[in-house]
Amino acid sequence: MATTTSVRDHSLTGPESTRAVERGLVDAEWFRPGIDPVALRSLQQRGDRRAASDTVLWILLLIVAAWVAWWSLGVDGIIWWQAIPAFAVYGALYGGAADARWHECGHGTAFQSRWANDVVYYLACVMLWRGPTLWRWSHHRHHTDTIIVGRDAEIAYPRPTSVWRAAWMFTHIEGSVRLITRLVRHATIGLDADARDLIPEHDRRRAVWEARAIVAAMLVVVGWSLSVTSIVPLLFIGLPTVYGGWLMVFFGITQHAGLRHDVLDHRENTRTVLMNPVLRFLYLNMNFHVEHHLFPSVPYHALPQLHETIGSQLAPPLRSTWAAYREIGRALRRQSSDPTWEIPVAVPDVVGAMPARIDVGERNWVRSSDAAVTLTMVDDMSVGELRRVDRDDSTYVLCRVTDDEFRLVDGMCTHARVHLAGGALLASGDRCEIECPKHNARFDVRTGEATRAPGRHSLTTYRVEIAKGRVTTRFDALSE
Ligand code: FES
Fold first, then answer.
1. CA distances from 9 to 13, 256, 335 (A)
2. Which pLDDT value is given to residue 178?
3. What is the DSSP string of 141-202?
4. Quick one: which of 50, 311, 354, 435 has the fewest CB in 10 Å?
5. Ligand 1 centroid to 333 CA: how many Å?
6. Which protein residue has the closest C-alpha to ligand 1 atom 1?
C-alpha cells in the first residue's frame, strides 16, 4: 500500500489515526505462517531456570561494572575520564540491556512465575523511566497495529529521518528528555492525549500514580546528589538511562527502520538479524524479531528454534548486524528525500495458516441420541492441544488439559477479537490457563477467569462429557 502524503502525522489522535481505521488497518487479521501445532506447543513451554540464570548473570555484571566504576573514581592518580570505560559498560547494561528484560517480562514470557516477570518488569521500568502501565498498553498496541501510522506509538523512525538524525538518537539525549518530560507531565498535570488513547479508563489512575512514584524516586536521587554536592549518585542511578541508552537504540533500530509502513504482514515491516551470542544475551534474542511478532507467546530462549522451524516461510534474515546497518543506512538516506520509499522485502509466496478448527455448524452436527454434539474423538487430540470450535456465529476453544480432562470455553479473547485457539495452554501447579497469542492475556480454562491483563472479562465455560471415546457437549454454560 503506497502512502499518499510524504510527511505523516504519527500522533495517535490525529487524521492518520482515522485514516488507518478507514483503510482496515486497525485490529486487523495479520499473516500467520503455518506451523505444526505440536512443535509450537513445545516452543511455547515456560520455565524459570533459563530466565533466572540470565537475570542473575545480568545483575552480577551490573554489580561488577558498578564496583569497577566506583573503584576507579576513588583511586589516587586516576583522572575522572579514565573511569569512562567502566561507566560505559555499566550504562550499557543499565540503560541498554534492561530494555530487553523490560520487553520479555512485559510479555510475561521470560519466567514461568508471574511474580518474577513482574519484579523484573517493574525494576526495568524504573531504570528506563517508563510508566509500567502506560508502556504495557503502548506495547500491546505495537503488537496489534505494528508500524501502522497513527496507531503505533512505538514507531521509532518517523519519515523522513536522515542518517544524521538517526545517529543523534544514539546519544539518547532527546529520547531521555522526552521520557522525563512525559513522566513529569503525567505525574503533575495528568495523562496526555496519546496516553489516554492507549490506556483504558480503568487503568489511567494507576498510570498517573506510577508516574508520580518514578518521579519521586528520581527526586530522592537528585536530593542525594545535592546533599553530597556530587553528581556521583546520579551517575549510578538515573543518568545511566541517558548515557547507556545507546545500546537500546543500537538494537532497536534494527527492528523496523526503513521497512514498510501500513502492511498486515510482519515479514514486510520487521527485520530478523543474525547476531553473535554476546549481543543475543544482551538483547535476549530479540534479533529474531519477525518470529517474536508472529508468535509473541514463544519465550525468548526458544526463538532461535522457532526461526529454524518457520524460516522457510519468511524472508531471509540479515546475516549480521553490519549487514542490517548497511541496509538501514541506505534506506534512511533514500527516505530522507523520498519518505514514501520503503525497503522491498521478498517474502516467500506461502498461504497463511489458522489453527485447526472443528465446524459444528447446523449442517455438520454429529448428534448422538441425547442431542449432544461430538467435538472430537478423545484420541484425536493430544494433551496441551487447542482446537477452535465454530458453531454458527459463535466460536469456542476446546482444550485438552490432561489425559482425561477436556475443557470448552469461549474462543475469542476478551481484549480484542483474536482466536484463543492460536495461543498456548499453560499448566502450572493446580492452575491451567489459556494464553492469548496476541498480547499474552491469560484465562483459567476451568473457571474462565481472566488471570492476566489485558484480558479483562472472564470467558464463559461450557460443560463437556467424555464417553465411549468421544468428547461431546450441549454447549450448556457452566459459568457466565
Ligand atoms: S487480543 Fe490482546 S490479549 Fe488477546
1. 9, 18, 16
2. 96
3. HHHHSTT-TTT-TT-SSPSS--HHHHHHHTT-HHHHHHHHHHHHHHHHT---HHHHHHS-HH
4. 354
5. 37
6. 416
Nearest to 443 by CA among 129, 157, 92, 456: 456
Please state the separation of Cα 97 from the chain's center in Å: 16
Q: Is the pTM of this model over 0.85?
A: yes
Q: Please give the residue range of the domain that contains residue 121.
A: 15-337
**314 within 8 A of 290, measured Cβ to Cβ:** yes
424 φ, ψ (degrees, to nearest 5): -130, 150
The reply to whether ligand 1 has any atom less than 6 angstroms from the CB of 421 is: no
pLDDT tens for each residue of 434-446: 999 999 999 999 9
Nearest to 238 by CA among 253, 206, 216: 216
The answer to whether residues 123 and 263 belong to one domain is: yes
State whether the beta carbon of 51 lies less than 6 angstroms from ligand 1: no
pLDDT of res. 2: 42
Report the range of poorest mean pLDDT among 81-85, 185-189, 407-411.
Answer: 81-85
3-class secondary structure, 132:
helix
The pLDDT score that the predictor gives to residue 364 is 45
The answer to whether residue 327 scores a pLDDT higher than 90 is yes
Q: Is the CB of 141 under 6 A from ligand 1?
A: no
pLDDT above 50 (res 4): no
Mark which of 279, 309, 337 sits at the end of a domain: 337
Confidence check: pLDDT of 117 > 90 = yes
79 and 107 inside one domain: yes
Tell me, using a 6 A CB cutoff, whether residue 436 lines ligand 1: yes
